[in-house]
């Protein structure tokens, strides 16, 4: 197949994947909508919250993430889900959403690969290519963790983010496949950008898990105060378990970001521009991102921060990463400005 054919295939399957991600998002949104229409009895919800927290009230900022408590939370969540009326329709919507996400991911992967074949190089030489590759990493990290940690509850947030990034890339950032600018001709580019994309995908999963942690923790506190909880929130793992999930994902991403961005990046910069560090805006915001996540991990390890405090730092880190990914490339002029064309 010729480069033009590969380019045509990529230009066809990437928008198709975007539409299917959007359909998956709608299916997960329906799942949440069905759950919001069902309010579980106060006594049943309170019993579930107490089981999930090991018999004690779950309070933000104090939840632990030990294996025993996670197993107890999972058991409580599973038993609770079986008792929730209307779960069958919610579960069906969840399965459809996950199936569509797998289908969209396959097409998405094909679009990234054929884009690389069309250009005759790694497919991340400009903002369009990095957008489709980074969003692929988000979907890949999510699907891997779905298999290992049963993270279907992140489906709505993940498909929303991926569909939005792909839609923006297709409509506003598209650039025809072409050769790399001279500064990008280095194998360090492959190491640097691939590590940034994978760790960025994990940052996104951790950020979304932290957002849902805050939602679930607030609902659990309301239940313990005598309130109610919708079936959609009750089907989520306990806030304690979600806090642990966010920690695991971010602990995986941090060393990868450290090596790929703050080690491989400067080595590539010395090759491309003759200096390891020049306080370029992209370099500065990559360092800021690293500092925020370092603070997150340090606070958990030394100060014992859990729950709301840790989730807040994780969400701040995610927004800093998003600004580094989008805002710096599109709004700030610097040595990395070629990535925004």
UniProtKB/TrEMBL annotation:
It is found in: Membrane. It holds the Pfam family Cytochrom_C_asm. Residues 124-336 form the Cytochrome c assembly protein domain. Its main location: membrane. GO terms for cellular component: plasma membrane. One of its GO terms (biological process) is cytochrome complex assembly. It is a multi-pass membrane protein. One of its GO terms (molecular function) is heme binding. Keywords: Cytochrome c-type biogenesis, Membrane, Transmembrane, Transmembrane helix. Residues 59-80 are annotated as: Disordered. InterPro entries: Cyt_c_assembly, Cyt_c_biogenesis_CcsA, Cyt_c_biogenesis_CcsA/CcmC. The chain crosses the membrane at residues 6-26, 96-118, 130-146, 153-175, 187-215, 249-269, 284-303, 310-332. It comes from the Bacteria. Signal peptide: none annotated. The keyword Transmembrane applies. PANTHER family: CYTOCHROME B_B6 PROTEIN-RELATED, HEME EXPORTER PROTEIN C. This is C-type cytochrome biogenesis protein CcsB. The lineage of its organism: Bacteria, Bacillati, Actinomycetota, Actinomycetes, Propionibacteriales.
